[in-house]
Write a structure and sequence with these properties.
2 copies of one chain form a homodimer.
Chain A: H1 10-16, H2 18-34, H3 40-51, E1 55-56, H4 57-64, H5 68-80, E2 84-88, E3 96-100, H6 102-106, H7 108-123, H8 128-147
Helix pairs in contact in A: 2-7, 4-5
Chain A binds a DNA duplex through residues 21, 25, 28, 39, 41-42, 56-58, 61, 66-74, 76-77, 92-96.
DNA sequence: TTGTATTAGTTGCATAAACAACCGTATGAG
DNA sequence: CTCATACGGTTGTTTATGCAACTAATACAA
């Protein structure tokens, strides 16, 4: 069955995902330099709220590929830093809707500018075509692994 | 300078690296099912020791893209689980050389089998050519970000 | 209507990461 | 030789993840 033997080093690189670790580290550093007071993980939650405010924690789980405890605690920290606020859903009292505070909304422009700049640094010298191809491969990997749960 | 505007969702996917997170989660699950008693992070250290035993912690930092405290604590846990042993270097007393225990050595075959199988699951249906291309893109991303430190 | 299953969210515990500050050892210039 | 500097490793603190167990609220079937 192992018709797919990997060349030396390939296995390790794919599994450890050093490229995405490097991007996250750089984004964190760039946030700090730009005075954006949030972690990359917190940014990933804010990112989805900027697109559509007032999502439930469960929706944020699905959007960010995290489990429920992770989102609970990210929201805890975002709330502590006064960037979002939990509001109980009136129709279904199990649900927390997460809303941006004015400070949370204010952060969007600069944070997204830094995120785009960081991705430009990361992808410098890579053609559009190859970016698309890598994207397709990574999406396929993700789909392969999701499907088998 | 933002000649490289990203399509919707692309920025988020690249930065959060969901594919490599998914691979790591699957590998952890497969380890568990196969009775391999180690975390993916611990495996990443063992992987390099299986290739060459008796490396220093600093060498393991370089090999695994981790900082010194991270490796210190991974080695702490590996030592606690009796998979490796710290041995002081005789020539330079600052250095710890990390050696596999018999149990650590015994784990290699099964762990590498599971790792290869996991990568096969992840890359099912992706052509050799596209795997290579994705690899090149990810390496370029890594190099871009390393260079600018 | 009652009782069971499902859903949303939280808490506890172990592991890991980043960053800064620190200690002991080695090195090399003067 | 001595002292500043660099190097290898450890510790403390904060943040985040995964898993399992749990609570509260809802849905739904009998």
């Amino acid at each position: 069955m192992s018709n797919n033997q990997f060349r030396k080093g390939e296995l390790y690189s794919f599994i450890t995902g050093k490229a995405s670790v490097a991007i996250a580290r750089r984004l964190q550093k760039n946030f700090k330099e730009a005075g954006v007071e949030a972690t990359v993980e917190q940014w990933s939650i804010l990112y989805h709220l900027w697109k559509e405010d007032g999502r439930s924690q469960q929706q944020l789980c699905d959007a960010t590929f995290r489990d429920k405890p992770s989102v609970t605690r990210l929201v805890d920290n975002l709330e502590k830093n006064k960037l979002v606020k939990r509001v109980g859903d009136k129709k279904d009292r199990r649900i927390n809707l997460i809303y941006l505070t004015p400070e949370g909304r204010r952060m969007e422009e600069e944070a997204m500018r830094v995120a785009n700049q960081t991705l430009n640094e990361a992808l410098a010298g890579v053609s559009e075509k190859n970016i698309d191809l890598a994207k397709v491969v990574l999406q396929k990997v993700y789909d392969n692994l999701q499907g088998m749960l």
